[in-house]
Amino acid sequence: MKKYTLGFVFLITACVAMAQSLAVMQQEIPTKVPFAKPFAAQAVLSHPVGQTVQLVEDSTPADFALTHVALNALAPDRTQADLTVLPLTLEKSTFTVSFALQAQPQETVTLQTPITVTAVKLFKDQELKEIRSPKRPVDWVLWLCILLALIALICLLIWWLRRLKKDAALLEAQQDKRPPHVIALSQIDTLVDSGLWEKKQYKLFYITLTDILRTYLQKAFGLDVSADTSAELLRRIKTQAQFTSFVQGLREFLASGDLVKFAKAEPTENTRNQDITFLRNFIVQTAPKPQPQTPQSVEVKV
Q1: What's phi and psi for 45, nearest 5 deg?
Q2: Do residues 34 and 117 touch, judged by C-beta distance below 8 A?
Q3: Kind and range of the H or E element at 41?
Q4: What is the DSSP secondary structure assignment for residue 244, as one 8-state letter?
């Protein structure tokens, strides 16, 4: 009888000791999860009454990462652990995590479950999002664009230089190389035949007529009177000995043109003819005489 009594006491003591230790009563951990997609794991732990359970740091393997841990007391001797786990490897691996009593850190209990991690279907999983940075364009494309722009700029510069050269050659070809008095007399004839007088465009007619005089003085004698008033032009003429006999006639010619250009006077046909005749005579009589050519001496060898 005594023997049975001791065995019963020993059994009761063992049960009480087991009830006072940390243990896993229940766990729910999936055995197959997709790669890089968080999953939930849950466990119910028993422990001595009034004790607090804590997670053992760095108890999770490198193939998994804990993103969330919640320890909630269900009873004085029970605690529920809710975990959110992120798988970081493919194929089969073992997930482990350990817990300990806060009062007795050396006493731990470990959850251990084999888990198969499957590959993610990239184009069918609607929850998958692109996390890579935007792709930068290849550098050679930029350099190619710069090279093409430089080539286009060089071609444009060459075309512009050729155009300037062509325009200069054309302008030189169009320049009238006749003597100044011949050009001026030709311009008078062109003005008379232009029809300006018949259209009663008297102002434009006299502007052109006086411009012929100014151009002739510049080309034949180097007198730049293009910006001179009539009074200033007369003062220049008085300083030139070859124009002494024409000063009075030039005064009347310029005054006649100023009346039409600035006073809007309507000249008579007789006035027009007198002005044209004076300008013709002035150009013919003042035209520079061609320089006589000096005969070249011929050396005769005896």
Answers
A1: -110, 135
A2: yes
A3: strand 39-46
A4: G
Instruction: Please list the rounded mean pLDDT of every run of 10 residues in the chain (302 residues).
Output: 51 48 88 87 87 86 86 88 86 86 85 84 60 64 90 93 76 74 92 92 92 91 88 88 88 90 89 92 86 54 46
Residue 276's Cα: distance from chain center in Å?
63
CB 99 within 8 A of CB 53: yes
d(CA 23, CA 209): 123
The CA-atom distances, in angstroms, between 263 and each of 12, 242, 267 are: 140, 31, 11
Alpha helices in the chain (DSSP H): 2-19, 139-174, 180-192, 202-221, 230-238, 247-262, 269-286
How far apart CA 61 and CA 81 sit, in angstroms, is: 18
pTM above 0.85? no
* 269-286 vs 202-221: helix crossing angle, rounded to 10: 10
